[in-house]
């Protein structure tokens, strides 16, 4: 039985459950459920605080879990990143009142407020910067400067609107680019079922990131067209009733759909059709 920890609250919770559902696993309907058995998939889900998930996985209490890369690094746990999951993307950055600081070296001698004290201490140490202190807060970190408990903050930034509203701006290089990740215990033998979970999640990611493209192209231009849509292994090329034309089918990155259609049209492809992929195993 594979034991998997899933965030019970916060921005990771709903998309993590949604991704597991798309991968064919049972997920809870009632947010008060703390444990959910999925006997058909030989799995059991534990709904835990996102910040605690790496700790449980590192201890081996559960086999794998979904958390944020930033939370994993801040936990100090021996759990290791197994698969990036492509949602809850953010950067982790220093910020200060607009027009004041420009470089991480200027954090020396300043008080830094953050919910991620280990991440910040490690980053400052790796840059040889000694702050006056690190103030650990649970949230609403952006308010700490106005309230006088810190001079600098280090926090999650997605759109930047929370910072702007607080009159702050980022400075220095990003400390980290974070996203939701599947974590597992480091060094231990892969638990039974982890390979299947991984392949299923990769299938969901691929279905989200790729489309299926079909088109007809004159036989003499097949090689040029296929160079534009090389597919994952190799595109399918089929004969058509009119022997001067061939049909091609290939997977294409969703973000490149329109550029690829333009390029195909240029080399003579016609009847270019794009279909979403519902599920796949690669
Ligand atoms: N606005 C955001 N955009 C993207 N990811 C975010 C955002 N806020 C938090 N995260 C990510 O969510 C994880 C933190 O989850 P956590 O549940 O602790 O905080 P939260 O989502 O801010 O919830 P809350 O503060 O309401 O409890 C981190 O991995 C962080 O990078
Ligand atoms: O760049 P933005 O799009 O504004 O998003 C970033 C904000 O979102 C999160 O806060 P949340 O709303 O979870 O509140 P919290 O600070 O209490 O955790 C995070 O801690 C930042 O404050
Ligand atoms: Mg928050």
Automatic annotation (TrEMBL):
Cofactor entry: Mg(2+)
Enzymatic class: transferase
Matching NCBIfam families: hisG, HisG_C-term
InterPro entries: ATP-PRT_HisG_long (IPR020621), ATP_PRibTrfase_cat (IPR013820), ATP_PRibTrfase_CS (IPR018198), ATP_PRibTrfase_HisG (IPR001348), HisG_C (IPR013115), N-reg_PII-like_a/b (IPR011322), N-reg_PII/ATP_PRibTrfase_C (IPR015867)
Pathway: Amino-acid biosynthesis; L-histidine biosynthesis; L-histidine from 5-phospho-alpha-D-ribose 1-diphosphate: step 1/9
Residue stretches making up the Histidine biosynthesis HisG C-terminal domain: 207-278
EC number assigned by the record: 2.4.2.17
UniProt-listed GO biological process terms: L-histidine biosynthetic process
Gene this chain is encoded by: hisG
Assigned keywords, A-Z: Amino-acid biosynthesis, ATP-binding, Cytoplasm, Glycosyltransferase, Histidine biosynthesis, Magnesium, Metal-binding, Nucleotide-binding, Transferase
Name this polypeptide is given: ATP phosphoribosyltransferase
Catalyzed reactions per annotation: 1-(5-phospho-beta-D-ribosyl)-ATP + diphosphate = 5-phospho-alpha-D-ribose 1-diphosphate + ATP
